[in-house]
């Protein structure tokens, strides 16, 4: 693997890290970057490329786990945590309830999604439609939300947010954009919706990544390792910065600035590619 391959890995890792948990669609950005860096496919096989996408996603997952490590620790089925959950803390069962809809639909329609929805056209539709949903959520948001903290999320809200997460099965919509919008529409503060979104995203992403790694383990060859490692480290660093920055500012800037960015991005891509 030459220097150019490492540079490509770092760039793709940066894109993944900055966009995975921001409401701008990491899948959409990765599809767009894949087209821009098409020549990089000369550096590695399609199998290694697919493995690389899983590896950099794991870098992003590790970053959010570190940022929210206390929350994830409290979800473990330990005795002290069970007592704490009874006192009004977010419990593991509410997270599971939120995951159920996307797990079921993802399992049923995985092949259809992979075959028909991963294209430039569908991503552009998702970017714009997701932006509209985010603007609507901001317009409907209350100055005094009913749910200020993620600890106040009910089972009903968790399930309904899980339904909003299903929208993100369409590439370009963004898991964060869809679920945070859903939470806000349901009466949650932007920060509470973001916290629940990130917590809910980790297990479903980790499970999907683990399955992909098992299928592609043979491609972790000495030649490919520097490429994979560079992408992982790059994605981890930039996801860590992105998540911390986003969680500190989301209650102030809300979703509309990200929606505007998505619309501008979709317009630029349409002009350049079509």
From TrEMBL:
GO terms for molecular function: undecaprenyl-diphosphatase activity. It catalyses: di-trans,octa-cis-undecaprenyl diphosphate + H2O = di-trans,octa-cis-undecaprenyl phosphate + phosphate + H(+). It is an enzyme of class 3 (hydrolase). It is a multi-pass membrane protein. GO terms for biological process: cell wall organization; peptidoglycan biosynthetic process; regulation of cell shape; response to antibiotic. Keywords: Antibiotic resistance, Cell membrane, Cell shape, Cell wall biogenesis/degradation, Hydrolase, Membrane, Peptidoglycan synthesis, Transmembrane, Transmembrane helix. Its main location: membrane. The chain crosses the membrane at residues 6-33, 54-72, 92-109, 116-137, 193-212, 224-243, 255-273. It is found in: Cell membrane. It comes from the Bacteria. One of its GO terms (cellular component) is plasma membrane. Its EC number is 3.6.1.27. InterPro entries: UppP. Belongs to the UppP family. Bacitracin is thought to be involved in the inhibition of peptidoglycan synthesis by sequestering undecaprenyl diphosphate, thereby reducing the pool of lipid carrier available. Catalyzes the dephosphorylation of undecaprenyl diphosphate (UPP). Confers resistance to bacitracin. NCBIfam families: PRK00281.1-2, PRK00281.1-4, undec_PP_bacA. This is Undecaprenyl-diphosphatase. It comes from Bacillus mesophilus.
């Amino acid at each position: 693997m030459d220097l150019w391959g490492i540079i490509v890995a770092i760039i793709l890792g940066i894109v993944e890290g900055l966009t995975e948990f921001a409401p701008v669609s990491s899948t959409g950005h990765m599809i767009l970057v894949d087209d821009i860096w098409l020549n990089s496919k000369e550096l590695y096989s399609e199998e290694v490329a697919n493995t690389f996408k899983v590896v950099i996603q794991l870098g992003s997952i590790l970053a959010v786990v570190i940022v929210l490590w206390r929350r994830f620790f409290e979800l473990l089925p330990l005795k002290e945590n069970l007592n704490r959950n009874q006192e009004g803390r977010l419990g593991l069962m509410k997270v599971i309830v939120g995951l159920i809809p996307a797990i079921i639909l993802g399992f049923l329609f995985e092949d259809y999604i992979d075959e028909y929805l991963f294209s430039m056209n569908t991503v552009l539709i998702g970017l714009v439609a997701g932006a509209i949903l985010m603007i609507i959520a901001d317009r409907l948001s209350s100055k005094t939300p009913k749910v200020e903290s993620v600890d106040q999320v009910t089972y009903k809200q968790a399930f309904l947010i899980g339904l909003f997460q299903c929208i993100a099965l369409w590439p370009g919509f963004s898991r964060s954009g869809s679920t945070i919008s859903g939470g806000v529409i349901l009466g949650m503060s932007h920060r509470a919706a973001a916290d629940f979104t990130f917590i809910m995203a980790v297990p479903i992403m980790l499970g999907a990544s683990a399955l992909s790694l098992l299928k592609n383990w043979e491609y972790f060859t000495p030649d490919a390792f520097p490429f994979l490692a560079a992408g992982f480290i790059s994605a981890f660093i930039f996801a860590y910065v992105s998540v911390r920055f986003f969680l500190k500012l989301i209650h102030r800037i809300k979703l509309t600035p990200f929606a505007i960015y998505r619309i501008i991005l979709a317009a630029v891509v349409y002009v350049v590619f079509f």
